[in-house]
Amino acid sequence: MLLDLLNKDNQSDNKFALTPSISPKAETPVVPKKSPLLLRLLALVFAVLCGLLICFVFLSQFNNVTAASFLNVQVSNTPCPKPNLQPGELSYVHFPKPLTYSRAECACNPVRYFAILSTQRSGSGWFETLLNSHMNVSSNGEIFSVKVRRANISNIVDTLDKLYNLDWVSSASKNECTAAVGLKWMLNQVSALDSLRKLVQGLMQHHEEITEYFTSRGVSVIFLFRRNLLRRMISILANLYDRDFKLLNGTHKSHVHSPREAEILASYKPFVNATTLIPELKQVQKNMLKALGYFNSTRHIMLYYEDVLKNRTKLLDVQDFLRVPIMKLTSRQVKIHKGSLSEQVANWDDIQRTLNGTEYESFLNGDYRL
Predict the structure, then answer these.
(1) CB-hemisphere CA count at 13 Å for 160?
(2) What is the per-residue burial (b if ≥16 Cβ within 10 Å, else e) of 14-43?
(3) Minimum mean pLDDT among 21-25, 53-57, 150-154, 213-217: which range?
(4) Which DSSP category does 147 fall into?
(5) Please, which of 91, 121, 150, 366 could form a disulfide with 202 given CB 3.0 to 4.6 Å?
(6) pLDDT tens-digit series, residues 166-208
(7) Are 203 and 281 a contacting pair, CB within 8 Å?
(8) Structural contact between residues 338 and 266, judged by C-beta atoms closer than 8 angstroms
(9) Which residues make beta-bridge pairs with 342?
(10) In a 10 Å sphere around its CB, with 0-12 CB exposed, 13-18 middle and 19+ buried, how is residue 9 labelled?
């Protein structure tokens, strides 16, 4: 019995030992919540650090670009070595610095300036295509056919400055290093025949200022004229006719690139006014001699269309005159009027009677076949 009571006491003690005591005053611990202000502060610090990092990277790149730019400027401003030339040649050698682009590796390649002085229908268009077939030559056509460019001498000088500074953009612009740059400039024709086209390009009107410009800027002049002025007159009349009647499918073309087109244009035979023929020829000769006199003081070369046509070695002389590497020059243009003059005009007999026994009689016999 005593043993039973002892066992019950042990069981009672174990029961109370296993049952946790709960105090009425004990509380469950609360985890403290993070402050929204602290989170915002951390986010702000992170954003500031990211911004500083971005600014640092940007400034590093900007400094690199700026340093490279300054380096490029210093290289481009480095003076080019003086060319090994005769003293008389130095004034004709230039190192232009275009405003619209950088010549880069071509900056120290010397450039020659030139101007082709000619008359309409004297082969100047064909001659210019020959020059432009050279990889280092840019001849930019009749830029003074636009009235505003020749309105006064100031406009003329500004236009020439832009051209010779290599800032003139045209189909003649070269990807290769330019060694010679120029234009084609027509003498104004005051004869009745040519006045139909109002060919006044400012060259003769401002010849004194232009001669001074050519001399001071070292511009070389290429005179290109035609020996047989009768052939030139026939070409002008035929071209005027095609300008009005457009024989090639309603399109006027002063120059062609296929034999068929040349044949169509040559089919028209103009009528030459025999009464005014000799005065017209005299006037053209007078203009040519006047131009030679005005610009005789410039460095120049004299060419005739017929000579270049028959003797292509003349093109070697031109390249030597411009001091450019010798190359084979080519043109896609096809000559329109070929063969005997008697086959190209409607009143050949009248022309013969007018010119026989005069200083222009040789024009009747001038013939060349291609």
Answers:
(1) 24
(2) eeeeeeeeeeeeeeeeeeeeeeeeeeeeee
(3) 21-25
(4) G
(5) 150
(6) 999 888 888 779 999 999 999 974 444 444 444 578 999 999 9
(7) no
(8) yes
(9) none
(10) exposed
Amino acid at 244: D
Residue with tokens 């290289």: 75
Q: How far is CA 201 from CA 86, 147, 179, 232, 295, in A?
A: 35, 8, 26, 19, 16
> What does each C-alpha distance from 109 to 114, 163, 179, 283 come to in angstroms?
16, 17, 7, 43
Nearest to 239 by CA among 268, 201, 199: 268
User: 53-61 — which CB contacts under 8 Å span 24+ positions?
Assistant: none
pLDDT tens for residues 226-257? 999 999 999 999 999 999 999 999 999 999 99
- Give the residues across from 256 on adjacent strands: 334
DSSP secondary structure code for residue 184 in this structure: E
Please give the single-letter amino acid code of residue 350: D
Provide the 10 A C-beta neighbour count for residue 45: 10
Q: Give the C-alpha distances (Å, rounded to integers) separating 273 from 39, 120, 221, 276.
A: 102, 19, 34, 6
Q: Does the pTM of the predicted model rise above 0.85?
A: no
The rounded distance, in Å, linking the Cα atoms of 286 and 34 is 104
Task: Write down how long the chain is.
Answer: 370
Decide: residue 174, CB within 10 A, 0-12 exposed, 13-18 middle, 19+ buried. Answer: middle
Share of the chain above pLDDT 90, in %: 67
pLDDT of residue 356 exceeding 90, the answer is yes
Nearest to 332, CA basis, from 145, 193, 174, 126: 126
Spatial CB neighbours of 81, under 8 Å, sequence gap ≥ 6? 108
